[in-house]
# Entry
Amino acid sequence: MPRDTTVLVPDRASVAPSPGRPAGRDTRSARRVGAVLLGPVALLAVWQLVVGFAPDASVVSPSDVVRAAVAAWARGDLPSALTTSLGRGVVGFVLAVAIGTPLAIAVARVHWVRIAFGPLLKGLLVLPSVAWVPAAVLWFGLTDATVYFVVLMGSVPSVVNGLVAGMEQVPPLYRRVGTVLGAGPLAMTRHVILPAALPAYVAGLRQGWAFSWRSLMGAELIAGGGRLGVGLGALLQEGRALGDLATVLVAMLLILTVGVLAELLAFAPLESRLARRRGLTSQGSR
Amino acid sequence: MTTTAATLTDDPARPRTSTPAVQLRQVGKRYTTGGPDVLQQVDLTIEPGELVCVVGASGCGKSTLLSLVAGLEEPTSGTVEVAGDGAALMFQEPALFPWLSARGNVELAMRLSGVGRRERRDRAEELLRLVHLGGSGDSGVHELSGGMRQRVALARALAQDRPVLLMDEPFAALDAATRDLLHDELERVWLSSGRTVVFVTHDVGEAVRLGRRVLLMAGRPGRVVGEWRIEDRRSAASATWGRRLTAEITDRLREERHRAA
# Structure
């Protein structure tokens, strides 16, 4: 109700820009960092506790893992595995976006494409991408093609479904405005539907990245040797074969770290920038 | 009683000087076959440069009428003719695109009709100044108040450069003071642009305030049941006269409502 807003707005305005605001923001972000670290620190504490109570060969302490990590890094195993996997992950993801984006536009905007391929792409989301590994090995042998094939089968459907869902949820009023402004089907897609679907697209990309990273690890874990370089997944498998739990945990932590960093450094800033520009955050609007 | 819909087209008081801006002949509309008549045998002629207000209770088919003129819907029967290359339409919601700035929204209307980049920018600035938003071109949509957004929507509709401007309760969601201001602005824009304006509202006072002609619609089935001409604005501006006309139209509106119920 308009009356409510006129009462609320000056209220909030008179409270918010107090002199203590910059300091308040600093405290808040410090508290935020603290909260983010709380989970990992608690986990480490529990881990150390378990090690203390069960001194067994099958249990390694956090310090063992750190030592193994340092050693593997010094040998060069870790950097090379990391670059191998990261390179594959990024290339696979970029390919998935390049394939998935036009595919999604076709599915959302062309009637017969939607009928023919829509259910298939939804169905592919359910199929774990590692299920493609045996077939891919038979088709392409132990080559990079196998890895990329599995990554694409995992991430393309999720990129497509994110963008299609976003395009389907465009408010009908926007389409009406587009029609009134004289937009044909192509101009409607370019100037109305795609920009409106952008936040959902970014969400789809984020999920697509997660899927391609996961698929990559699955593929590297199952298919090793041949002309395949040693990635993080292979490192994991190697650790298991040698009964080297510390190395296994190092690889796992590294896989997790890559995922978390991609989220914190790429997708979260992208999403918040998008939201701010559209006035979807409390700070951006007045 | 005033002129009825049947005698609209051959009104002797206003001899036709040019082809009408909007002409509806025996227009009927049903959304589903066998469903109720949303509009029934509507005849309506609007001359170029007129400012016509269509007033009626909600659900009487006013918005459908506008959708037909805008070309968003096809009539079930009869013909709809609009002069030039059609009509621009303004909705009750500003319906601005949040990923574009105020200027970007205005420019998009021109971009979609193939206007070049530089001309677009100049014209958008000009239109924003016309609606008193000269300095706000770079603002995001979320930074604008409701009234400012509706002004941008007006500038966007004007940017389409169509001879006919259709407005579907554009100020209904605004507070009274902002609405008053926008009435003045719309009148000024109308006088300076020479456009034909069809303004739909459920508010009789607003219709009398703005319209040079007021059409009353009744629902079930939707049709035009009354017409008032307000040729002399100065007399309409006098409060008592305006109040009397508003009361008269409101009475008719109430009467039609009872008949429908």
